[in-house]
Amino acid sequence: MDQRVTLITLGVQDLARAITFYGALGWQAHPTSVDGEVAFYDTGGLVVALWARDALAADSGVTDGGGWGGVTLAHNVGTPAEVDGILEAARSAGARLARGGALTVWGGYSGVFVDPDGHLWEVAVNPGWPLDDGGRPQLG
């Protein structure tokens, strides 16, 4: 297996609500999305999909116990002001802030929001991972 991830699927309770939420953050669903069933987002080398949580659980062969699944997604940016702006945009779109933007013990700046379906997103500046022109982190 190659060392790469190509798709992350987020199980959602209400697909229309989730599409509206991510749209408010500036995300645009890809034309190959299936209206009312699944939304795909091209994030520059990785696809993020939104799919009904019960369908995702059935397809994955698991029972959905609800709650946090032990995963936090991350979005790296270049400045603390960008972190704060994205956190505020997410809050305005219906997210709950789990942790406001603040300096971190590892020398960065980050905050965390929880989307309407309970998925955690860290928005961070990591001085050890400068971003290239495409916004991709460069592991030092």
Description:
The protein starts with 6 loop residues before the first strand and ends in a 15-residue tail after the last strand. Helix content is 23%, strand content 30%. It has 3 helices and 7 strands. A 4-stranded mixed sheet has the order 4-7-6-5, with helices on one face. Strands 1-3-2 form a 3-stranded mixed sheet. The model has no long low-confidence stretch (mean pLDDT 93). With 140 residues, the chain is α/β, with parallel strands linked by helices.
Which descriptors would you attach to this protein?
single chain, 140 residues, alpha/beta, 4-stranded mixed β-sheet, 3-stranded mixed β-sheet, globular
Topology diagram in text:
Elements: E1 7-12, H1 15-24, E2 38-42, E3 47-52, H2 53-60, E4 72-76, H3 80-93, E5 96-103, E6 109-114, E7 120-125
Parallel strand pairs: 1-3, 4-7
Antiparallel strand pairs: 2-3, 5-6, 6-7
In short:
This protein is 23% helix and 30% strand.
